[in-house]
Write a structure and sequence with these properties.
One of its GO terms (molecular function) is ATP binding. With 792 residues, the chain is of the alpha/beta class. The protein is built from 28 helices and 27 strands. The strands form 5 sheets. The protein has a 7-stranded mixed beta sheet, sandwiched between helices. Strands 4-5-3-6-7-2-8 form a 7-stranded parallel beta sheet, with helices on both faces. Strands 22, 23, 24, 25, 26 and 27 form a 6-stranded antiparallel beta sheet that branches.
Length: 792
Amino acid sequence: MLTPQRVQESLVHTHHLHPAAGEHGDWPDWADADLVAAYRRRGVEQPWRHQVTAAEASWAGRHVVLATATGSGKSMAAWLPAISSIRSAQLGTSIAALQRRPSVLYLSPTKALAADQLHGLQALLTAGEITDVRVATCDGDTPTDERTWIRDHADVVLSNPDFLHFSLLPGHRRWQRLLRGLRYVVVDECHAYRGVLGAHVALVLRRLLRLAEHYGAAPVAILASATTGEPEVSAARLLGVDPTTVTAVGQSSAPRGHTTVALWQPAILPGAEEQVWAQESTGGPPAWRPSGTPEDAPRRSALAETSELLTDLVRAGKRTLAFVRSRVGAEAIADQTRSRLADRDSAELAGRVAAYRGGYLPEERRELERALRTGDLLALSSTNALELGVDISGLDAVLIAGWPGTRVSLWQQIGRAGRAGADGLAVLVASDNPLDTYLVHHPEAIFETGVEATAFDPGNPYVLAPHLCAAAAETPLLQADIERFGPGTPALLRDLVARGFLRDRPNGWYWNYSRPESPTDLTDLRGGSGAPVQVVEAGTGRVLGTVDAGRADATVHTGAIYVHQGRTFRVESYEDDVAVVTERSVGYRTRPHVDKHVSVVRTGTEMAWGPVTWGYGVVDVTEQVTGYDRRRIPGMDLIGTYSLELPTHTLRTTACWWHADPGVLAEAGVAPGDLPGALHAAEHAAIGLLGLIATCDRWDIGGLSTAVHADTLEPTVFVYDGYPGGAGFAQRGYSAAARWMVATRDAIAACPCATGCPSCVQSPKCGNNNSPLDKAGALLLLTMLTAFAPRS
């Protein structure tokens, strides 16, 4: 399938996951007989040992986290006690049993996963001829009349944390039947809840458990997770309980086939050898090469390489899933793969390749999931929405376009290859950035390092405050609730009362109903900054999809090109949360210009490295989209630049920064005229390497560098969290600054390019088109910086 030359040029390392035999357990005595029969009719004669261990613990009333590999059958560990509980209660004849018919609430991070679980659960109940257990999904897409039926009749409700926050919890009186009988809360793929999203979900779960207790229920939580570090600690933090009350099951007893994991670095493009690259860069900083198909970049982009590999796999008849970080990337890989298949006399296969991403309409997502499940689609290019446990059996291979951000995500994606015990292939295709380059050449950092613990902070005041408001509106907050919401609660309650959000009364804290806003509208779990922008086709009025409000200015501004399943549309107007588009066949793409400023609001802590000062604290980041480029495809050559008038947006967050006297930098060999490029290059490389220190990637964080900053009055580099209130990433960078800066310095020094490239100091998300950049100056700066770093 691959020529020896391609393998020699690009294959950096091969790792083998050897097959393992399974170990069965016995069906528990309490398991419902019809449910056991249903599993057997679906080919499961006996459960695996880890499934029994988890199910027994939850049946005994303990919270459980099952943290095992993809495809190890975590769902059975939840449904076995949950459905058995519902059916056993139906045998009771007491009034109390009838009034408190057990109910189950299932929560997933994506609608796709909930829909898939519904499909599997309905098939299971049908196999067991179980007609007295009613299951349904209920989320933001569910029509009002269906919601009414679900509230009145459903025994198992499959939903997501967003629906709980915006609908179920504020409307809890309408959901009394569910909450009063709530026996189990199933939290699927709980490792996905990290950073700010994790903090939000932890507080939503606290609100849920608080209301369940209000109605007299004491639900048991069953959490399903990928293999993570300290799963019981993360699960306890998510629930707001003591870790000793959580049983962790972390060893899978399910069988697995042989999986080959390849670390793949795209080859240097013809005509782009180092000498040519250096010559083209002479006389100024290299122009920005976006991550698409730049003809003069040192290496082929991860997207183009993944598309080429996907084409080969499709032509070989291999069912393949390609993962990519961005929505634009998902569209690009699918589009390029279809084009390559058509060019190679395989046009009949082009129709069996599609993209899958957020922003599609619900019915389109459901159809793609069905087609992949049934085999109508042979290959799918997806964002991480399909990383999670959607049942996609029979995959031969997985392609991963760029480091997915965490080892947890990497192993989840690798686990998609060869499910159900079959052999599989997984290929990590390195993007041209410092972190990816480092990892493929240091495989021990992947295969010999434990997976990350899930990091999130429910005590983040920017996250906690709006949830306290929402909880007070649901039922007044009492003194007993303070321990549930954490030690920062008393101070926040005083602040919320002073600001008029809450009212302090002798019998608790109440939401101030005279305020114009709803308490649930004070925050968005996914970090959005408003209602999604609808993309509407001119003439027909058809809604093509949606774009998050936070990225709309940059992606659907007037004149932008919007891509949907290979079709290109131009945005004709963008106002009032609607982007009106017309389909156009154009030979260019658009790239926004973003102006950004950072100001220090409050310095929390400082440390001195000789003449260098490090700081950590609260900052305001202001951004504005001021214009955009049109760039010809392929090659991304600049066609023209256009101005825009869009509003400024301010993000208050946390950051770490360092600054030094210009004289010290001059002594290190960095002339004043070279400072902007040297600082900018050091900032880019540091952002690219922070993923080694914190559970993040460059898309979670931002940065800014300046030769003179208004607050420090010195050359300064900032790295900040890209979420309101912070997410802990910058704090971890500050705490491990020496290790972080040494890794950054070493990554730049090890890169063979002459003046800077995407593998060391260029960034695919730079708002200044990667200009100016000075690789040599950055190395001098970082060498000076690390010389003063404290020795551990």
